[in-house]
Amino acid sequence: MSADNDEIILADLDDAELVQQMQDDLYDGMIPEVTEGTQLLLSRGWDANMVLNDALVEGMRFVGDDFRDGILFVPEVLQAANAMKGGMNLLRPILAASEDTQSTGKMVIGTVKGDIHDIGKNLVGMMLEGAGFEVIDLGINTSFEEFLEAVEKHNPDILGMSALLTTTMPYMGVVIEEFEKRGMLKNMPVMVGGAPLNQEFADAIKADRYGRDAAISAEIAKTLLGVNR
Ligand code: B1M
What is this structure's pTM? Predict the structure, then answer.
């Protein structure tokens, strides 16, 4: 995947070449290059969502495949994740400003206990902010007790949970069960998401909705407002 980058001037590339180069740079964890590529595409009139999906998310897919196949290891993947964040830092304000500025609703969101993957969750948070939501982000490795404390403090309209590991996704069910026991889900629908999840799993743990990706999740969140159990 990696090419010798020394001679490449990103500004000289056409759009397709630049996207390809950004995917390579993301794979190689080159934060300044990914940031510069993001800036260039934006300055060429690219929509922020397209930059996100075509260059960054797609680049991360290659990283994931090679991580799975034992070609990349944790330090390299972390470096790629940081390069992705470099690009996302530029996209965040644009995505967040792209829709209503008035608060649509409030969502508490976190990556569940045992899981430290936060890129997807952060994207969902960004898109929700873009859709006018106030987002209270509890970060990674979030226990039921932390979700409970945040829900009691902020009284959100929606509870959101993210998990990227098959070993941590069942904990979402534990959180839902604990809230259910306390009768706290009557006015607080739950949305879950993360790469290993699907609708079937969401149904099995009694989540209200499954969000496949960040853009769809923002739409789903809007439809969830006012849902009562
Ligand atoms: Co990890 N990792 N990782 N990892 N990692 C995966 C998830 C894995 C699939 C890689 C692989 O094997 N191909 C695999 C899981 C396998 C499994 O469970 N069956 C895996 C593994 C095994 C591990 C470790 C166990 C590795 C190890 O240590 N041996 C370890 C676990 C650490 C832990 O959590 N306890 C680990 C560590 C790491 C890093 C720290 C190195 C790094 C995370 C950095 C970070 O997040 N800050 C990392 C990364 C980057 C990945 C991959 C490569 C990329 C994940 C990502 O950011 N994707 C990933 C492979 C992959 O998924 N292709 C992998 C991009 C992101 C935009 O997509 O997160 O799916 P995603 O989010 C999407 C949707 O899912 C959805 O919207 C998002 C945006 O469109 N979505 C929601 C997500 N949350 C949502 C919530 C919603 C709604 C929608 O509502 C609330």
Answer: 0.82
